[in-house]
TrEMBL record:
GO terms for molecular function: methyltransferase activity. It comes from Rubus argutus (Southern blackberry). The chain crosses the membrane at residues 35-53. One of its GO terms (biological process) is pectin metabolic process. Keywords: Membrane, Transmembrane, Transmembrane helix. It comes from the Eukaryota. This is Uncharacterized protein.
Length: 264
């Protein structure tokens, strides 16, 4: 009985929120009902997710996200706060964003709530603990679970802006040599890196089981040299706009934030 109720609730919600969107596909593909059913659930979950983030659930969700990201994922939490600043710095270029990092479902949902921004995510770690909305995002391909030691499953220049948080701290130089150029490869307008600052963030023992190794935090001098080694240049225009907007909006980053140009 509860199951039937659940289905009724779901279809009512879909009727309320997404009837127009769904009706075209349900008429043209009435034969492929199992696929359609999965699609319905996925779209429903997406709408619910958007609803919970835009409406009254918002505050609770943000709090939850931050408490989950404390410590281990601190730069991903900072990135979430920095989204309005990034919008100012990148303007229209923020229309098609790829985020790579832990807790990407939360980041992608927040980006979706911004006007005229579409977002995709790559989760470098497992999503077994993820909630149902996150699993739905994975099911419909908005979020992919992928090991970033290997090339990303996207064509060159698939996204306007690519943002990566935390994950690079867990890669050795050998992998960074390949991963960083690959992130630049899929971007048209730029690559933004949020990475831990030595002395400000601490590596935790619990990280090793999840990420395979403890974070190795590198300083600005190290990163700048490394970007030179892999032929990535600072995006000075974006850096400048970001810093101006950050000051205006009283945004203070504890993490290091780098803005790089894509390859031409
Ligand atoms: C990374 O690449 C640079 C230059 O391309 C090279 O000098 C360096 O040895 C490489 N590092 C590792 C660990 O493979
Ligand atoms: C940055 O880190 C390197 C080691 O990777 C160290 O030799 C250097 O002194 C550090 N620079 C600053 C300014 O802390």
């Amino acid at each position: 009985m509860s199951r039937r109720q659940g289905n009724a609730n779901l279809s009512r919600r879909l009727g309320d929120n997404g009837g127009g969107l769904l009706s075209a596909s349900s008429y043209s593909k009435s034969r492929s009902s199992p696929i359609l059913y999965v699609a319905l659930i996925a779209v429903g979950a997406l709408l619910l997710l958007a609803y919970s983030h835009s409406g009254k659930g918002g505050v609770g969700n943000i709090k939850g996200a931050i408490s989950r990201v404390q410590g281990d994922y601190s730069c991903t939490a900072e990135l979430q706060q920095a989204i309005p600043v990034l919008k100012k710095a990148y303007g229209d270029s923020m229309h098609k964003v790829l985020h790579i990092g832990p807790d990407t479902c939360t980041v992608v949902s927040k980006l979706f709530n911004e006007e005229e921004t579409e977002a995709w995510g790559v989760e470098p770690y497992d999503v077994e603990d993820a909630d149902a909305s996150c699993k739905a995002l994975v099911r419909i391909g908005i979020v992919r679970v992928a090991d970033i030691k290997y090339p990303l499953p996207y064509r060159p220049k698939s996204f306007s802006v690519v943002i990566v948080s935390d994950s690079l701290d867990y890669l050795s130089e050998r992998y960074l040599n390949k991963t960083l150029p690959d992130l630049a490869r899929v971007s048209v307008n730029g690559l933004v890196i949020f990475t831990g600052s030595p002395g400000k963030q601490r590596a935790k023992a619990a990280e090793v089981s999840k990420f395979g190794r403890a974070a190795k935090l590198r300083n600005t001098t190290w990163w700048t040299k490394f970007f030179g080694q892999v032929s990535l240049e600072e995006n000075e225009g974006a850096s400048k706009k970001f810093n101006i907007a950050a000051t205006k909006m009283s945004y203070v980053a504890n993490c290091q934030v780098f803005h790089l140009r894509p390859f031409n």
